Amino acid sequence: MKLHENSSSGCLLQGPEDLDASDKVFQRVSSSYKNLSQKFRHRAKDFSKQFAHIYAARLTEQRGTLLEKVYKKWGPGIRVARLAELGELSGEKCVIIGTLFKDQELKPSILKEISEERGFCLNVPAQPVNNRYTSSSDKLILEDELQRITLFGTIDVASLVTGIICAILGNEDNLGKFSVDDVCWVGTVFPPETPIKLESDRFLVLVSGLDLKSNNAESSLAMELMADWLSGWIGDPNDQQHASKVARLIIAGNAVSSSPEKKERTTVIETSRVEESSTVLSAVQQLDNLLEQLVMNMPVDVMPGEFDPSNHSLPQQPLHFCMFPKAANYKTMNGVPNPYLCEMDGRLLVGTSGQPIADVLRFSDVTDPISALESTLSWGHIAPTAPDTLDCYPYYNSDPFILGQQPDVYFAGNQDSFQTKLVDIQSSGAETATYKTRLVCVPAFTKTRTCVVVNLRNLECYPMTFGSS
């Protein structure tokens, strides 16, 4: 295999030695790129704020967008009232806007955990061991800046979670509860009508859960095959031509590890600590070697995941460049935060390493990750359960997790299997237009040996599996 250097882009061109190079040399495509993740980067760290401020900021920021959709859905004459004004309306039908709070008996409680660990008697029931915390007794409460009210009626309690901003159509009953007739979600802001016209295919590859710490021989072989395919080292000329159209690779978290470290309840032996540190260090070195091979050929974005050596609470900051002394020498190596927001060839890409979707699944009856991902798109928020059950930074004046403009590609990493869906959303303005978003659940590579390929030209999406099935 001969590697031909492209002086204009710095990428490599691929071609087999035993074929005519003039016919079988492929140039890797270039792509315009903007990193739009600055809002997820910490300029200063101030943990003295209360977490309630982020809910107030979320409601303030999304109220304007929601009001526009309320008037389009229910008409300009509908009455929008504050909770404090309901008493004056005497049961008249109106719209109220606020933040949903889901009251769940099975929700984990720090008081219950402390009582179990310390043996204290706090008059609280024992903490259940569950992967899902929903029950038939769950109820929804809507809060605005001043008051709260319990909801009942035409609203699916089980499929919703805490932290969603919404508008509720209905009326207050004699018991001080609000009877729900219909619900309006915030959704997203439609992008400017500038059609994307790419003359040829341009591929984005998504992969997550490499889990190099586990040292799985089968997934390691599959990983090398994937790296060789992306680099143009394997396959026939058709495969190499296809690989040359990959413009970017995004590693969506848990590249170092995909499981928590084991914690000893008894005294920790010093040798165990050394072994654990040695395993993590070895995994980081393997990742550096893998990244070096990849960034020599294409731009690579590395997102931290739940179990990677980064801060735990969202937004996770980029993995430090000093961890990758080899790969960091290349300008194509790009450490990015989780969540991640960027633009490629006019396409807006938004994604996470999977924690928000996992949390929605835990606190609702939604069992399908792609459905949870679609719900967060409808709710207009990447991580609605933060900070209630998902750790996040205590933002004060703004909420960076609001989706805002509708993305072209919206992905979540570290899922059990590959799933995708193309969502069509119609605007309801003077001129009706349809906007498409490609939803992608990226499977954990260590379990499935699968990455995902998205064609930015037409938003087609398909998985690629390496090794035996």
UniProtKB/TrEMBL annotation:
Chain ranges of the DNA polymerase delta subunit OB-fold domain: 50-183
Primary site of residence: nucleus
Subcellular location: Nucleus
Pfam families in alphabetical order: DNA_pol_D_N, DNA_pol_E_B
UniProtKB keywords: DNA replication, Nucleus
GO process terms (BP): DNA strand elongation involved in DNA replication; mitotic DNA replication
GO cellular component, one term: delta DNA polymerase complex
Residues annotated as domain DNA polymerase alpha/delta/epsilon subunit B: 205-419
GO molecular function terms listed in the Swiss-Prot or TrEMBL record: DNA binding
Keyword Secreted: no
Family designation: Belongs to the DNA polymerase delta/II small subunit family.
Protein name: DNA polymerase delta subunit 2
Source organism per UniProt: Laodelphax striatellus (Small brown planthopper)
Organism taxonomic ancestry: Eukaryota, Metazoa, Ecdysozoa, Arthropoda, Hexapoda
